[in-house]
Amino acid sequence: MALSPNIVQIIAHLPLFRELSQEQQAQVVGGVREIRLEKGAQVFSKGDPVKGFHVVAYGQVKLFLPSVQGNEKVVEIIGPQQSFGEAMMFLDRPYPVSAEVLADSLLLHVSRECVFGLIEADASFSRRMLAGLSMRLHSLLADVESYSLRSSAQRVIGYLLQHCHEGAEREVSEGTIDVVLPTTKQVIASRLNLTPETLSRIFHELATRKLIEIQGRAIRIVDARHLRDFDL
Q: Please, which pLDDT band fits residue 5 given cuts at 50, 70 and 90?
C-alpha cells in the first residue's frame, strides 16, 4: 500500500534521511511501512525477531524490561524524530526489551534490507547511523554513572534541567525556566530508577524549598542555579 504524501515529506525531513538524494529517499520510501498506534498499544515484545528499525514520526514510545511480577523498568523514552532498534537489527538478535506507545503515535518501520542497501551505497548514511548508535551508547553510560554516583535528588534535578525548553540550558544561572514533563511521573520514576513515592517526595521537597513550582506535568524552575547545586 502506498504511503500518504505527508509520510514521504516526514521521511525527507528526518535527520537520518535529510541529506540523502531524492533517489535514495525514494529507496527509503520503498522500504518503509507506516504503523499508527493508539496510546498503550504494544510495538513489540521482548524476544520478538528484528526485521528493521523504527522512527517516531510523532508520538512517544517507551522501551522497557518487563518482569514476571508485573513490574517494569523503563530503559528509554523515544520522542519524535528519534529512532530505536538499530543495534539489534545489525546484531540480528531478538529484541532485548519491549516497546509501548505512551501517546497516539505514528511510527515508520524501515526494513533491514533497505538500510543495508543504503549503507552499501552511501558512506555518509553509515556515518549518521553510527552517530545515532554512539549517542545511544553515551546516554546509557550516563545512566550508569547517574545510578551509581548520583543521589536520588540529583537524578531528578538533572532530569529537569535536561528537559528545559531548547536554549534554556544556556541560561540556567538566572531567571525562571518552564519544563513540561513528557510523560507520567510513574514512567519518569522508572526511567530514573526510583519508586514513584521517592519521586513525589523529592518533588515535594523541591517545591517546599521554593526551587520549583508544580502544576500537573508543568514544572516551573524558580531558581535554576540553586536547583543545580541542591541535594537532599
A: low
In whole angstroms, what is the distance from residue 64 CA to residue 71 CA?
A: 10
**C-alpha–C-alpha distance, residues 88 and 227, integer Å:** 38
- Look up the CATH number of domain 5-148: 2.60.120.10
Residue range 151-229 forms a domain whose CATH class is mainly alpha
Render pLDDT for 79-128 as a digit per residue (tens, 0 to 9). Answer: 988 889 888 888 889 999 999 999 999 999 999 998 898 888 888 888 87
Question: Which among 131, 129, 72, 68 has a CA at the least distance from the CA of 102?
Answer: 72
- Global confidence as pTM: 0.77
Domain ranges of the chain: 5-148, 151-229
CA–CA distance, 31 with 109 (Å, rounded to integer): 8
Dist CA 190 CA 85 (whole Å):
20
C-alpha–C-alpha distance, residues 99 and 74, integer Å = 10
Joined grid coordinates for residue 57: 514520526
Judged by DSSP in three states, 105 sits in strand
